[in-house]
Write a structure and sequence with these properties.
245 residues; alpha+beta; 6-stranded antiparallel β-sheet; 5-stranded antiparallel β-sheet; 5 helices; 11 strands; 33% helix
Amino acid sequence: MLALPAIEDPQSFVATRQAWHTMAEHVLAAARYNAEGRIGLRAAPGGYSTPPYERSGVVEELRVAADELHVHRDGAEITHPLTTIAAAANAVNIEPGAPAHVYTPYTSLEPAAPLTVDLRAAEILASWFALGWSVLEELAGTARVNDAPPEITLWPEHFDAAVELGSADVGARGTFGVSPGDHEHLEPYLYVTHWAGVPTDLFWNDAAFAGASLGYGILRASTDPSSAALDFYRRGLAVLSAPRS
């Protein structure tokens, strides 16, 4: 059972989340896209990473953990401190910048601006992604075959991990995700969105988007955050699948 730590310094947490998000968009996703035309990332020990990809005949993987960039290349690993986007891009040997023709970046590209990472905040973010990813894996693993669940992906533009589940044919498909927070939600949260119109239900409780959310504070107060998260998602599947009148 994974316990969630308290967010004691919201300002440092937001700054760290911003730094990680900026790296995701302008370095990690950029490097993977340049190599193989894909942008998806994933949760990884201590933070998040690209999947392994091949560039110039060499297998490479990039990982952000705490205040470091880990570059795994051809079986070797080199660690660089997170200082600026320019320095990180130089370590990977790419031009920094999100592939803007694929998605509109959420963060601004300021190559020389300092990246502010608080180690405690980074630990919280890493714990959150680890918990959310494991719960999404369990949820997707028990989904019906005809739900056709795709792979879980940490999307750089939104900086959240998500999977799509449910039948689109009957209007019951939705997105199940793990967000580290945003402008409308200071703290991390889980969410479920619906792709089509759904019957009125108290489950759809979020005021910022058409869907439901479960906040970090509620999960942290739970005796078993993983089970509470899975219950929330399963409730989402049930509400999405409820008969239409």
